[in-house]
Every structure is written in C-alpha cells, then in structure tokens.
Specification:
The protein is globular. With about 110 residues, the chain is α+β, with helices and mostly antiparallel strands. It has three helices and four strands.
Length: about 110
C-alpha cells in the first residue's frame, strides 16, 4: 500500500521525504505510470506538498514525495485521489515499498 498508515518515526526531521518504489505486474507499467501521473497532479495542489515526482526505470517506478510536516502527509492520505490511487496501485503492482529518507546537502 502506497504511503498509507505510516507509523510515527521518531528521529525523522521535517520536511518529511519519502521514496516509494513500485514493481508493476507484467504488462501494467503504462497503467502504473498513468495512475501515478494523475495522483501526482492532484497531490501537488495540496497544502503542504513540496514535491511529488514520478521517475520510471526499466522495471520499477519511483515516487519522490516531500511534505512540510506529518499533518500535511496525514491530510494527503485522506484525500479521495490518494485513496483511489492506492486502490488502483494495489491491483497493478507486485510490490511496493515506502521509505522515509533524509536528503544530504550538496557535496
């Protein structure tokens, strides 16, 4: 399930950054990309959304998200486009992994 019911992660700083890795089922890559594109367009309009970008590899699809704080992410997870998008992605993907990350400065 994409980004749903995130456990509270002590030690994570705000803004919250997530990388979601999705493995589409055979033949479903175009539908996964289409679903994520629609989800990204709606999510970028939400208060607290700093980044919502989709990247497509040969076999995997990646979603890069940044939210101002936990409240913004929690509100996002209640939006109709999120709920519908997650349901579609659950049908279209073999696996999904959500990871909270902290970007390091330029170096």
């Amino acid at each position: 399930m994409v980004c749903s019911a995130h456990p509270r992660r002590p030690g994570l700083t705000e803004p919250l950054n997530l990388i979601v890795t999705l493995q589409p089922r055979a033949g479903c890559l175009p539908d996964v990309v289409s679903t994520l594109t629609t989800l990204a367009q709606a999510s970028r309009q939400e208060a607290g959304c700093l980044r919502y970008d989709v990247a497509v590899g040969k076999e995997l699809v990646y979603l890069f998200e940044a939210w101002t704080d936990r409240q913004a992410l929690a509100a996002h997870e209640k939006e109709a486009h999120f709920v519908l998008g997650v349901a579609a992605l659950n049908r279209l993907c073999e696996s999904q992994r959500v990871e909270f990350v902290e970007w390091q400065g330029p170096g």
